[in-house]
Write a structure and sequence with these properties.
CATH topology of the largest domain: D-amino Acid Aminotransferase, Chain A, domain 2
CATH architecture of the largest domain: Alpha-Beta Barrel
Number of strands: 16
Structural class: alpha+beta
Number of domains: 2
CATH class of the largest domain: Alpha Beta
Distance between the termini: 32 Å
Length: 295
Amino acid sequence: MAGPAFDDRDGVIWYDGQLVNWRDAKVHVLTHAMHYASAVFEGERAYGGEIFKSTQHSERLKESARILDFEIPYSVAEIDSAKALVLQKMNLADAYVRPIAWRGSEMMGVSAQHNKIHLAIAVWEWPSYFDPAQRMKGIRLDIAEYRRPDPTTAPARAKAAGLYMICTISKHRAERRGYADALMYDWQGRVAECTGANIFFIKDGVIHTPIADCFLAGITRETVIELARRRGIEVAERRIMPEELSSFTECFITGTAAEVTPVGEIGPHKYTPGNITGALSDDYTAAVRPRAKAA
């Protein structure tokens, strides 16, 4: 995103229970997480000064750490309070919120049972994830070369730093080819997700989305499924094969950063953002900004 480098900004970051100057929130080069990807994180948004589903995100952060075999030394309530505090101290109403927990530098090697577990929380302004003009027409997706791994080979249910390595590679390749993002298949060649967002398709008034067993079942994904069912729209969570891509009429992706973003193209396949995508986008906006809705 445009703006100053993320290590050179004004403000504060919550770091192991203390508010520290943004530029002083540092780790050592021999931190275990940097070498062995022993870090978990969350991506959250604040709207009007309130973090959307803050507790659910904190619970998932704790669970992700448990899956990676470490315990974050703060309760869910303490994490919620810390996020709210740093948001207040940064004087931001609409912001992106990034908690991250990681193993420190006491041991350097694969084994690191005695490393200190750290937790930091940063917030910053973050506009639309995609170009606004392109987003309204539907973004263009490439098809990634890398696939989401077999869940028996990676901790797929954790929001773990190491799982995003192939996402970065795939998104870079897509952007170099003129696309906004990339669709990833799973290890068996079935439709899975994008590099940082879940994906939905629409056909004959029914929403179809892949079963989230080898990738993260996003909190935004869950929210949108609830919103759709509240409207009486059928949502089918099922296996989706690449040869089906041409049979759908609408497509959209969901995520904390992406929110509800229409898709106009996946490789050779074309879609037209329609009524269901628009309605769910409006419903999501109303859900995350309840005060604005009430006004």
